[in-house]
């Protein structure tokens, strides 16, 4: 069986980590694209040269020519600018809109059958733009936010209770902003509801830390944002597709009536398999969670409106 081809658009902090994980997990041949000549080639060669030590035979190459992503099965997009301290994700809108438009046109041209995972912020707007510009069906364009946000929530809960992270199941839904929704009613530790194990007040503190976890890392790094964990999150989504796992993961998916929401990308549990986003799972949420989802979707809609203004202004 021929190896799969994975195109990474953007060879910065997340892009480089993605390439490394693709190689370590032997997901397929990797092509890393970036506009800065030398960076994708250098990172690719560095990872390629670790092959004999790690025992992977996949090809890892870097390029500044879109032609080289031809026929990719999966494209993961991180091209853009990352946050610096004091910036919100939405502050990146103007600059990243322009980049996402160009990237999406080239994905449509060179990898017309790819499953596309968008990571670039502001995530909910960028994934919307990618779907519009590529013209791909909704099952083939998805945004990464929820897997990471849920992983952060799970980490903090495991730490609080001193249990394995593998015993903690949790979902963080909604937009990838500070009003994301940690869904307490679906959070369990080895099958036990979280509310039985952690007092409500402490749980609220953990949920607040989860909402601000991206900013916590930006404040520490000062020169950029998180990259190891966002890369792991996107790789989990790519694996679900490449291995047809039919795994349920919280992702930014295009909704058409689910959760009473229409025509917007929003973080919900979806099933990912060979067909991409094969199904949206509708959970029974508490009244409080439903309200929080409404607040969050309002913010996503405002963000998309702001993006439309930017696009209109730029022609
Ligand atoms: O969970 C999530 N969705 C996220 C998203 C979590 C963390 C960070 N998230 C966002 O991902 C972040 O706010 C950024 O918008 C992206 C990429 O983050 P990364 O940390 O990888 O940023 P870098 O290191 O600045 O890398 C961006 C690369 C850099 O090498 C640029 O040269 C390149 O993007 N770039 C381009 N590549 C291709 N095409 C164009 N036009 C282009 N412009 C810049």
3D architecture notes:
This protein is an alpha/beta fold and 315 residues long. The protein has two domains: 139 residues, Rossmann fold (3-Layer(aba) Sandwich), CATH 3.40.50; 161 residues, Alpha-Beta Complex (L-2-Hydroxyisocaproate Dehydrogenase, Chain A, domain 2). Helices cover 43% and strands 20% of the residues. The longest helix has 27 residues.
What is the averaged pLDDT score? 96
Overall number of structural domains: 2
Bound small molecules, by name, code or SMILES, are: 1,4,5,6-tetrahydronicotinamide adenine dinucleotide
Query: What name does the CATH topology of the largest domain carry?
Result: L-2-Hydroxyisocaproate Dehydrogenase, Chain A, domain 2
Low-confidence stretches: none
Q: What's the CATH class of the largest domain, please?
A: Alpha Beta
Give the proportion of residues in helices. 40-55%
Major β-sheet profile: 6 strands, parallel
End-to-end C-alpha gap: 45 Å
CATH homologous group name of the largest domain = Lactate dehydrogenase/glycoside hydrolase, family 4, C-terminal
Which structural class best describes the helix and strand composition? alpha/beta
Give the CA-based shape: globular
């Amino acid at each position: 069986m021929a190896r799969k081809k994975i195109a990474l658009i953007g060879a910065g902090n997340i892009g480089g980590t993605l390439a490394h994980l693709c190689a370590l997990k032997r997901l397929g041949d990797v092509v890393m694209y970036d506009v800065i000549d030398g960076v994708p080639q250098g990172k690719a060669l560095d990872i390629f040269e670790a092959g004999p030590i790690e025992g992977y035979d996949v090809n890892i190459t870097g390029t500044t020519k879109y032609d080289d992503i031809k026929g990719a099965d999966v494209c993961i997009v991180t091209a853009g600018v990352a946050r610096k301290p004091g910036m919100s994700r939405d502050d990146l809108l103007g600059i990243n809109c322009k980049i996402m438009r160009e990237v999406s046109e080239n994905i449509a041209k060179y990898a017309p059958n790819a499953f596309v995972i968008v990571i670039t912020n502001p995530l909910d707007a960028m994934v919307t733009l990618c779907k519009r510009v590529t013209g791909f069906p909704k099952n083939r364009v998805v945004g990464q936010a929820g897997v990471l946000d849920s992983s952060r929530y799970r980490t903090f809960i495991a730490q609080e209770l001193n249990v394995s992270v593998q015993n903690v199941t949790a979902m963080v839904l909604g937009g990838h902003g500070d009003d994301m929704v940690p869904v307490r009613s679906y959070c369990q530790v080895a099958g036990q509801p979280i509310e039985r194990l952690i007092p409500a007040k402490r749980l609220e503190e953990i949920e607040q830390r989860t909402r601000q976890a991206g900013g916590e890392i930006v404040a520490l790094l000062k020169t950029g944002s998180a990259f190891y964990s966002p890369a792991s999150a996107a790789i989990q989504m790519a694996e679900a597709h490449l291995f047809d796992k039919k795994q349920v993961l919280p992702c930014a998916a295009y909704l058409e009536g689910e959760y009473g929401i229409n025509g917007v990308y929003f973080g919900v549990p979806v099933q990912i398999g060979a067909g991409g986003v094969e199904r949206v799972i509708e959970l029974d949420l508490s009244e409080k969670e439903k309200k929080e989802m409404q607040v969050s979707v309002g913010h996503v809609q405002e963000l998309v409106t702001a993006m439309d203004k930017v696009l209109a202004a730029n022609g």
